[in-house]
Amino acid sequence: MTLDAPQAARAASPSFAAVAEELLDDVYGYLLYMTKNWALAEDLTSETFEAAFRRWRRYDPRRGTHRAWLLAIARTTALDHFRAEGRRRRREERAEAAEPRGGEPAFGEGLSPELEDALRALSTGEREVIALRVVLDLEGDEVARLLGISTTAVSTRLHRALGKLEERMRDHDAVA
To answer: What is the distance between the alpha carbons of residues 130 and 176, in angstroms, rounded to a whole number?
Structure first.
């Protein structure tokens, strides 16, 4: 059996695992530079390599190096994230601008202004996981199914959100 040129090139190329290991720091560094947020850069790096793994069979070495190919996927992943965040922020701003329903108590009413500000500074995903795990006391696997993410992602998101809250409250106490 003879191989055509793309098949022969793929057969001679390194495995996905080898390429991923070699270029992980480059992709992460690029995404960290783009986002200025290590946690977000880690998440986007993971998404990048997941997408790259799904597309690995379609990689054509004649169109560019593995590094350029992975960085192009990382760029697309980051831009998709930024667009989604922009849409989320606009939705939140519209929701905040809308009139509150008359007579209904607001969720979380009675919190200190400092805690309300700290909660407001969190992303929607972070507030959502706090509401589901802490306020509503759902189990991690229930929250994972509800949000369509893994239980590990739920734990990670909750840990980061609570850490941010703690830091903001500590900063407030230091100022006060």
So the answer is: 26
Tokens 């997408």 belong to residue:
51
Per-residue pLDDT of the chain (176 residues; tens, 9 = 90+): 555 555 555 556 789 999 999 999 999 999 999 888 999 999 999 999 999 999 999 998 888 899 989 999 999 999 999 999 989 888 888 887 775 555 554 555 667 788 888 888 888 888 888 888 888 888 888 888 888 888 998 899 999 989 988 888 887 766 65
| CA 144 to chain centroid | 15
CATH of 110-175, one of 3.40.30.10, 2.40.50.140, 3.30.70.870, 1.10.10.10: 1.10.10.10
Taking the domain 5-90, which CATH number applies? Answer: 1.10.1740.10
